[in-house]
């Protein structure tokens, strides 16, 4: 029993310290590492559900693929690597050290003759002194031994023994680095979680209400967390994102953000961002120090490193015009909001919640094109995103934008992103509003055309007129009258045209182009559909011009000119009105004024293992260079009267060694010839 | 027997020629001139790196003689180009010497053309066994390096002409590092060419540089990537200046090893065997190149983690680029273990070195193209 366990532990030891095992581990580690680069790590769980579906989401969650590098199985691979490297050191270090010290001066003549690299010379007289001098010149250290039979001397020399230290350094370095990283890892926290001592918080609740089981004491060994502080506010905690929740790490001090600065290059990319922070004593609230924190220059206080990580909105106050898109009224109403908070509005007798999510004072876009989804998803406000190289020649600041969600009484929400300033697209001015149903989707933009005063009012008046069924008959009558002029036209022709116009307007007013198209498909034979569609569009466009004249008249504005600009305006307006039916919300919010409040994103870390890791790294570099760039070579010269036996060996067979052997052979042959 | 073989070898310093000393004096003079002009703008790190550079480049030039004319050429011609600007960026398109030779974009185009010509010369030499064509290939490669380095120097200056706050070392995006890659890989190759006194490997190594040049041209003409972009805050750090070049010594070495690996595989099947160096030589170049690359890649990764500890708040974040750097590192660590400990040689290791190129390529380019993460500075 004890014998078999001894052989078992011996074979485990053999396996652990074997090359085969080490190389397999390196390979397994490399392959396991790939997973986390292919699958984006630490995303909100909802994104994974959307990506994989519920079944695979659960499978991957069980495998820990959303945070691969902290799973038990991944850490186990690392642990095996450390164990394997350690046993390897334990097994080989004694012999390595022995080798470093030894000159192998006990080598026998016979064994030297069996060396792959050896040569024999016949000589006259003794050349011992000259050979010793040669060895010294060549940088070799040597040991001299008289042969047992007294018939000669053996010079055992070597150079580059430091090479062996390379082995010890590199392999110890790997162990040291892994241990340092272990100190900084969240493994202790994971163990606490496993035993139910700590639990992650998944609810969206104020920090002060997070229960103690999800809070970590200020004296945690190590942590890496984030906190966003609005200007004028302070924080004494950071949040650690774990899985689909978070934990609250209490800090031994309080950080207050006094002011946040940002500077831009002329092209609009951020050039510098900085936070004026103050560190306050937790107990007394007294200010301990003030500091301006910038990217790449962390502040270290009380063993905690404070980094400038990102910036965002800290509760900008927004003043907006709300346009009710489906009402006949063309007057806006006032809406006030604050970023990161909610407000309620009523439209069409329905309650809606407005959730203001973000405000950006600058938007760098490729003007002349609608912003692409990709550009919109890039947030240049974090240290952790870079600047993509590409055609930036058309990039301009198009001014502020704000983001919000409109949630109906059933809890369904659409997300919007509106620009404050009009944008010039294809030589015409528009207000742009982007909408999407899901956070990951690209934004679809609706463009509201501006009238000749560059205001939204013209469009809103036309829209009110066209969406109000009670006006359709009058629009149609006027259109028919202007379209068919002259006295000798039968009355019923005009009436007929007016009737079809009313029909077209009614359809369009109920569902835009889609309603028209549905009608055509249902009632008109396939062969005539194209012609009918063209006719309807023509009627719609021309009668809309009449509607516009009426709308402007009603508002007391000057009559629109019948020119090309107005033509485009009408066409754009019709497109826009048709899009309203897919806009998802009955209200368009136009930003009128804002009072910006910034927030600074800080990252705080305590990593006592850092210096251990860097120490190990230094050792690793030393070791690698000792291993690859210092070659260990041994050289023996057996000097007997009339004969010199020369042999060389190296632990690495390289071409350099072959060349060196040849060189020494020639030189030694020359020395012993004289 | 020659006398030198028995006489004690002369000391290293005694073997230096007057030109070696002149070169060192030139470096000291240059550093002194830079200090006299700009010392008030330099901190202690800047100054110590400048002084260390004098030592490093002196020793480099003393040990590898062609470096001396190269460095002097780069310095003189870059200064000439810079003086031609009269502080006006627009002159890059007007002044004759700038427009056709030394404006950064012109110089880089020259570099590209010369690398492609060098590749063709090496191929001609391989096909016709012409030693002369191979010499022309080496000459063209040196010329390409000269133009490339001038291009980078002038680009550095041009970035300050755009605006003093935009100015930065030209190794900050994918376009710039591709130039760096071409230069470093070709310098490494020329080093081995001299060390083994064999020019035939050029026919295999230069194509990878030509491929990089092809990418560079596509990137410039299709994506206008040659435009100088300002640095985002995260990149405004001293670490960039050492992290990036160290990384590219690694990438360059690994690419070189892979290309020599291809030569090895062909030669071991008897293809071109009579025209290529012996298998042992190819094997040795492959090993040396991977060992050098591994050393520098380790340094680069450590420098990167030192920088990350300053910029991102942690020395290791398992960001895709970091992780792929680790994968590359593990790959070559395994390669070196097998070769050094098991003493394995032959086609298997050559195949592995070739596969290593794809792993390296993915870490270098693929991560930027297909994966997102912290290193998104070089997005395509």
Detailed description of the structure:
- The complex is a heterodimer of chains A (674) and B (380).
- Mean pLDDT of chain A is 88; it is low at 371-379 and 386-392.
- Chain A is an alpha+beta fold and 674 residues long.
- In chain A, strands 14, 15, 18, 19, 20, 21 and 22 form a seven-stranded antiparallel β-sheet that branches. A five-stranded antiparallel β-sheet of chain A has the order 1-26-25-3-2.
- Chain B has two domains: 75-230; 245-379, no CATH class.
- Chain B has helices spanning 3-6, 18-38, 44-63, 67-85, 96-102, 104-128, 131-162, 174-195, 202-223, 238-268, 279-311, 320-340, 347-370.
- In chain B, helix 6 (104-128) runs antiparallel to helix 9 (202-223) and helix 11 runs antiparallel to helix 12.
- Residues 1-8 of chain B have low confidence and may be disordered.
- Chains A and B meet through helix 2, strand 8, strand 11, strand 24 and helix 15 of A and helix 11 and helix 12 of B.
- Chain B: One of its GO terms (biological process) is cytochrome complex assembly.
- Chain B: Pfam families: Cytochrom_C_asm (PF01578).
- Chain B: The chain crosses the membrane at residues 21-38, 44-62, 69-87, 107-127, 139-157, 169-190, 202-221, 248-267, 287-308, 323-341, 348-371.
């Amino acid at each position: 029993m004890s014998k078999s366990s001894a052989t078992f532990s011996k074979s485990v030891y053999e396996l652990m310290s074997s090359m085969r095992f080490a190389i397999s581990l390196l390979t397994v580690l490399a392959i396991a590492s790939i997973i986390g680069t292919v699958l984006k790590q630490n995303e909100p769980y909802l994104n994974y559900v959307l990506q994989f579906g519920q079944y695979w989401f659960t499978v991957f969650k069980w495998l820990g693929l959303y945070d691969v590098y902290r799973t038990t199985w991944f850490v186990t691979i690392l642990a095996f690597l450390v164990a394997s490297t350690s046993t390897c050191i334990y097994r080989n270090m004694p012999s390595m050290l022995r080798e470093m010290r030894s000159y192998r001066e006990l080598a026998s003549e016979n064994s030297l003759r069996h060396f792959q690299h050896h040569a024999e010379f016949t000589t006259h007289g003794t050349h011992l002194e000259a050979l010793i001098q040669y060895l010294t010149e060549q940088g070799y250290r040597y040991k001299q031994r008289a042969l047992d039979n007294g018939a000669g001397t053996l010079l055992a020399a070597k150079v580059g023994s430091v090479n062996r230290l390379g082995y010890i350094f590199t392999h110890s370095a790997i162990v040291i680095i892994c241990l340092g990283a272990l100190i900084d890892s969240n493994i202790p926290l994971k163990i606490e979680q496993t035993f139910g001592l700590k639990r992650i918080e998944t609810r969206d609740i104020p920090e002060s209400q997070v229960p103690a089981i999800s809070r970590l004491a200020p004296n945690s060994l190590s942590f890496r967390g984030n906190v966003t502080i609005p200007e004028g506010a302070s924080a004494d905690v950071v949040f650690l994102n774990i899985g689909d929740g978070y934990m609250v790490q209490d800090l031994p001090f309080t950080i207050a953000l006094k002011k946040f600065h940002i500077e831009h290059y002329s092209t609009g990319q951020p050039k510098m961002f900085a936070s004026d922070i103050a560190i306050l004593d937790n107990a007394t609230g007294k200010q301990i120090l003030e500091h301006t924190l910038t990217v790449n220059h962390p502040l270290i206080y009380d063993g905690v490193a404070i980094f400038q990580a990102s910036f965002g909105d800290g509760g900008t106050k927004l003043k907006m015009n709300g346009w009710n898109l489906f009402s006949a009224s063309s007057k806006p109403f006032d809406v006030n909001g604050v970023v990161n908070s909610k407000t309620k509005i009523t439209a069409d007798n329905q309650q809606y919640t407005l959730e203001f999510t973000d405000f950006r004072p600058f938007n760098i876009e490729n003007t002349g094109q609608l912003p692409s989804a990709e550009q919109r998803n890039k947030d240049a406000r974090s240290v952790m995103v870079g600047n993509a190289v590409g055609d930036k020649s058309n990039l301009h600041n198009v001014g502020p934008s704000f983001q919000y969600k409109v949630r109906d009484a059933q809890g369904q929400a659409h997300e919007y992103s509106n620009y404050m300033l009009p944008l010039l697209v294809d030589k015409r001015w528009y207000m742009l509003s982007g909408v999407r149903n899901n956070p990951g989707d690209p934004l679809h933009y609706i463009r509201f055309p501006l009238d000749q005063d560059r205001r939204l009012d013209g469009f809103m008046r036309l829209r009110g007129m066209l969406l109000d069924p009670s006006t359709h008959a009058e629009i149609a009558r006027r259109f028919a009258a202007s379209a068919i002029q002259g006295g000798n036209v039968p009355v019923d022709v005009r009436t007929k045209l007016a009737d079809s116009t009313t029909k077209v307007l009614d359809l369009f007013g109920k569902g835009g182009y889609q309603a028209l198209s549905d009608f055509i498909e249902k009632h008109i034979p396939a062969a005539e559909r194209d012609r009918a569609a063209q006719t309807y569009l023509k009627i719609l466009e021309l009668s809309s011009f009449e509607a516009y004249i009426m709308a402007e008249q009603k508002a007391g504005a000057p009559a629109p000119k019948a020119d090309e600009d107005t033509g485009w305006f009408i066409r754009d307006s019709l497109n826009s009105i048709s899009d309203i039916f897919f806009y998802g919300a009955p209200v368009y919010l136009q930003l009128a004024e804002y009072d910006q409040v910034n927030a600074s994103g800080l990252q705080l870390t305590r990593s006592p293992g850092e210096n251990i890791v860097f120490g190990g790294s230094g050792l690793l570099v030393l070791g690698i260079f000792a291993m690859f760039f210092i070659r260990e070579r041994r050289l023996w010269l057996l000097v007997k009267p009339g004969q010199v036996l020369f042999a060389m060996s190296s632990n690495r067979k390289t071409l350099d060694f072959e060349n060196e052997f040849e060189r020494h052979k020639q030189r030694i042959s020359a020395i012993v010839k004289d | 027997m020659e006398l030198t073989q028995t006489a004690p070898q002369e000391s290293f310093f005694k073997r230096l020629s007057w030109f070696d000393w002149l070169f060192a004096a030139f470096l000291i003079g240059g550093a002194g001139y830079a200090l006299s002009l700009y010392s008030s703008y330099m901190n202690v790190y800047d100054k110590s790196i400048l002084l260390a550079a004098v030592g490093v480049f002196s020793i480099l030039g003393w040990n590898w003689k062609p470096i001396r004319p190269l460095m002097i050429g780069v310095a003189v011609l870059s200064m000439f180009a810079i003086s031609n600007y009269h502080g006006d960026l627009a002159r890059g398109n007007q002044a004759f010497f700038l427009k056709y030779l030394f404006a950064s974009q012109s110089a880089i185009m020259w570099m590209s053309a010369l690398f492609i010509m060098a590749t063709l010369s090496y191929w001609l030499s391989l096909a016709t066994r012409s030693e002369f064509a191979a010499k022309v290939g080496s000459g063209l490669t040196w010329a390409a390096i000269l133009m490339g380095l001038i291009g980078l120097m002038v680009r550095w200056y041009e970035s300050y002409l755009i605006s003093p706050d935009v100015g930065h070392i030209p190794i900050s995006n994918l376009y710039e590092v591709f130039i760096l890659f071409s230069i470093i890989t070709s310098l490494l190759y020329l080093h081995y060419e001299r060390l083994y006194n064999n020019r035939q490997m050029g026919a295999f190594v230069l194509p990878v540089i030509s491929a990089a040049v092809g990418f560079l041209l596509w990137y410039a003409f299709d994506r206008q990537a040659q435009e100088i972009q300002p640095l985002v805050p995260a990149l405004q750090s001293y670490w960039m200046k050492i992290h990036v070049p160290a990384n590219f010594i690694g990438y360059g070495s690994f690419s070189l090893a892979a290309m020599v690996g291809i030569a090895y595989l062909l030669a071991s099947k008897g293809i071109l065997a009579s025209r290529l160096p012996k298998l042992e030589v190819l094997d040795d170049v492959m090993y040396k190149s991977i060992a050098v690359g591994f050393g520098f890649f380790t340094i680069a990764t450590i420098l990167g983690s030192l920088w990350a500890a300053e910029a991102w708040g942690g020395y290791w974040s398992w960001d895709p680029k970091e992780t792929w750097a680790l994968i590359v590192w593990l790959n070559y660590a395994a390669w070196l273990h097998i070769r050094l400990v098991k003493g394995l040689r032959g086609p298997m290791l050559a195949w592995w070195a070739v596969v290593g190129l794809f792993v390296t390529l993915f870490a270098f380019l693929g991560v930027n193209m297909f994966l997102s993460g912290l290193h998104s500075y070089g997005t395509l």
